[in-house]
Design a protein that fits this description.
Blueprint lengths: L14 H24 L2 H14 L5 E5 L5 H10 L3 E6 L2 H13 L6 E5 L12 E7 L8 H11 E12 L5 H23 L2 H13 L4 H10 L2 E8 L4 E7 L3
Parallel strand pairs: 1-2, 1-4, 2-3, 4-5
Antiparallel strand pairs: 5-7, 6-7
Length: 245
Amino acid sequence: MKVEEIKPYSNEGEKARQVEQMFDSIAPAYDFMNRAMTMGIDRWWRRVAVKMVGKTQPRRILDVATGTGDFAIDLYNKIKPQQVVGIDLSQGMLDVAREKIAKRGLDNAITVQQADCLALPFEEREFDAVTVAFGVRNFEHLLQGYQQMLRVLKPGGMLCVIELSTPRNRVIRWFYDIYTLHIIPWAGSLKSGDSSAYRYLPQSIAAVPQGDEMLAIMREAGFTGCKVKRLTLGTCSIYTGIRPQ
C-alpha cells in the first residue's frame, strides 16, 4: 500500500483532514512522545540536517510541516537567516510552536501559519531553502508536495527532508518492529489518549518511499543532485536536492 493511502483513522475521507485532526489531538503530548520514542536522538538528527542546510547560507527558509516548531527554531539559532517561515496543517501544533517562539523572543525571526503543503501560499522562487522534518509521509500526494516545494525554491536552493525509515539489517529490524509496532502505540495511547495516531506512525514509516525510491520521486519533481544520508542504523534518513539554475 502506498503511503498516501495510509490514514490515521479511516480508509474513507481525505488523508490531509485526518492528519490535521490527528496532530490537533496529540499536540499537547507530541514533544514528550517524540523525545521518548527516539530516546532523544531526534535532536541529533536535526542538528545534522541543520549543518547541511547551513552550508548553503540561506537567507529565507521555509519549514514545511513545522509542527511544534523545533526544527524551525534550530534552523534560526544555528544558521541565523533573515527569516524562517513554518507552515503546518494542524492549528494545535502551531499553537505550541507559537508559545515556544514567543518564549525565546524570536517572534520577528520565525513566523508560522496554517497552510497545506500541496498548495503553498507563496510566490515562485521565494525561499533559499525548504526543509521538512518527519513530515513527508503525511503528505496526501508526495510528488505534488515535492513539486510545490520546488516551485517556491530559488534556483540553486536546497531542499532538506528528514524522515524516519526502516533498518535493513534483519536483527535490528526485528527489535525495531517490536518497538514501533507494539511499545510505541501502547505508550502513545497512555500519554496522548489517541491510540490510532501511534498505530499510524509505524504503518506510515513502513509505507513511505525510502532510499533510491524516494530520490527517484524527488528527481521526478525536478530536483537535481539528490542524495540520501542514513543515520542511527538506518532508522532515519536525510534527503537533499537542489532546484536547478
